[in-house]
Input
Amino acid sequence: MTNILQNYRRVALFSILAIVPLLLISNSVISYGQTNTTNATNQTSTSGGPNSGLIKLIDSGILMIKSGDNEGAKKSLLQAESGLEDKPNVSGAEKHIEASLKALKDNDTNGALTHAEEAKKGLA
Amino acid sequence: MNRNLLIVYALCGILVATGIVYFLVAYGEYTDWVELLNFGIHDETTEKQVEITLFITSGLIYLGLVLWLIKTRFMKKSPYIAAIVVSVALIITYAASRTVGVPIVGVELYVGKLDVISKIMQVLVIALSIVALYKIKRPVYSFTK
Output
């Protein structure tokens, strides 16, 4: 019994030792696969087309990300995602908006921009 | 401290940390789900429920593995094998979710910080479990004081 209690104590100690670097790393690890930001914001036409409203929302989200307004960007992207509900033909764009939202949550600006641009391409 | 014990205690620490990471990921998915619902987005509900259930279950399994290891006083092979099997299965599932897609959830496009951290820890779990299994083959008394 004493042996088991000692084991529990040691496991608790090692757990703490494992968690501390985890917390330190969590703010410094760079997310992979989201580094290639493009400047396609001004290249996609937003006039006309069935998805022009959604593209405008994504565009405003991109501008807000660039200006550092992550909360505003999140709202714009969520509105765009709301507009994509029940549209299976543009599920790729929806997945990119979700990825952009997750990147925003991780404070990964480059990732958020890349995925927002990809979502726009999927709707254009 | 005995070197073999150091390995198993390190393994237990990483298992607990991995479990906690899974709970954090589950909480993140839950907050995402609530946000989506607040915006009237309901078509993600099933996907989020599946993800949250999977992450909570994974976290509980990792914590259960620690208790199992302690209960068997680190001397049985089965908890180590289970830790390897669970970690490999979760790594494969994750890789599938980022490439070919998995049922219900489909393909996820973002690789987050916690994802990377959990995969690194799962690789460590596999490595330490293999080392511990190798040590267990040797006389059992070397695992005790």
